Please model this.
Amino acid sequence: MTAVSEPRQALSGVTVLDLATYLAAPVCATLLGEFGADVIKVEQPGVGDDLRRLGRPVAPSAGGSFWWFVESRNKKSITCNLRVPEGQALIRRLVQGTHVVTENFRPGTLERWHLGWSELAPLRPSLVMVRISAFGQTGPNRERPGFGRIAAAVGGLAYLAGYPDRAPVSPGTPTVPDYLAAVFGAVGALVALRHAERTGEGQIVDLALYEPVLRVLDDAVAVYGSTGLVRERIGSGTESAVPHNHYRTRDGRWIAIACTNDRMFARLLRAMDRPDLAGDARVTTTPARLGNRALVDGLVAGWVGERDAGEALAALEAADVPSSLVASVRDLFEDAHVRARENIVSAVLPLLGRISMPGVVPRLTATPGRIESAGPSTPGEHNEEIYCGRLGLSAAELTGLHERGVI
Model:
């Protein structure tokens, strides 16, 4: 019987050199690697990447945190000291066979190390360089530092998160902006790669960490620009629709209900068995409900609060009302739909067993992404493969680089 080979992935043949650390730009490279790109992760000699030490460690001997093994999946690790001429020379040689470089240093850092765009582009005219920094490569704040929490604050999202009588909160986790930037960076890389394929011309993808945050503010920018209205915090509700909120059940769970038009609200009234409200002018239209937000939310909260989560969700589902349990990570593991969609998968950690992690998104039917391995356990695990295999260094040369602290 002939073995069925796995389909060729869409980015097979693409090489990505990941010079970045922590999250946004490294995850951008990870996303490309999930669809077949060969990703070479550059780590600091001796200590490795900072993400290895961020979050909960898998085990003292594992070589990294859960976070590292998830977000460095499918990558090959090499070590290289970017601050010394010998290390810089190695990177320049690798760039000659590279399609995409990802980096997230402060603007000017790579230039000081002689690894900026002006130095790398002549080595490969079709090179795509994804540069993610806190404030981008231009502008008066370009050299300021920043992480996801700062990006959420600068981009306007943190201001909207929370309740009006309390301090703004982190929207989800402080790293949401990093993941948003990773996705936008990957889109930019793919667009630039397409342009390079057609013209042979490379380019820089310049992305500030706060910019994807600003991009996802719904209509807040347009509304303020036209009317001067500043959107304020309103808790877990939504400015444009009611009921569109989280409601506590009798058994202490939380469920989400989202009625974005009058038809959905009419179905909710049926689920609640409240025909008496069908003609109530206070609730029959979206503008009326927005004007009576407290009344509508109170009616829904009262109905939900009299029921266990399962009972309330069953009634809502029967009436075709958009709704869901507000899931904890435990709930995700127990969710049959999440299992069916393979949204949570596992990968092998050598000598330590398996580690759970989110699956590949999005799903492609012809060239699906896949997870070949968890992140590398040891910094420089693939030094011989990359330096000797790609650059043709001898074993003696590799040993010498190691002894001099270059790798």
